[in-house]
Amino acid sequence: MTGSLTRQDADVLGGSGSILVRQRRDHARLDAMMDRWSAGDATDAERDALWQDIVQLVFSHAFAEETVLWPVLRRTAPDGEELTGQVEEEHQAINELIARVEKAPGDPRRAEWIQQAFTLIRQDIRDEEDELLPRLREAFDDRALRRIGAAWEAVRATAPTHPHPGVPRRPPGNALLGVPLSVFDRLRDLAPGTGPRARRVSLTLTGAAAAAGAVVLLVRSARRRTCA
Q1: Predicted TM-score (pTM) of this structure
Q2: Cα 188 from Cα 162, distance rounded (Å)
Q3: Nearest-CA neighbor of 170 among 63, 96, 36?
Q4: What is the dihedral of CA 31, 33, 37, 43, to 10 degrees?
């Protein structure tokens, strides 16, 4: 089996557009932001802004994984069901913990909860880079990995950006509930009310459906190769 993605060259992982490189890039960005928040050398306003950036990336990244990657993995890897089930449990725990932080901005335990969330996020990153994502490297060639990466990126760009613990972790339930929640989240993040920016946020959501269709074709192709 392909080893951990952590220190592998981008060319080995399918190039800069590969889903493996895109995932690792997001993970590195999250690590850097969590380290900066924990260092305590920023102002309160800077830490609040940094926390919001972390939250938005965590949930858009995870939603795209659950919509695009894990269905592919379940159909192409013998242990895909077990592996994705474990990561989905981690995602749910992160969802619930960050929801608690968002609902109690003045709670004295807030910093403790944030550090607990960081611990869970880092464990999730390790599980994905060491166990789940190498299965995709085994199952797909470079071109397919780049196509999956483009689909994942399109969904990530239109995904919810805040915790919603009640949303299912798997399609089609997550997509049916996630799209309207994404509109709400992104209008809240970028452009409260209406106007040109708000309309742009709504229009970009149409890309998610096209991306999901591309992934379905990839999965069917992989299944045909497996059965051949």
Answers
A1: 0.83
A2: 10
A3: 63
A4: 170
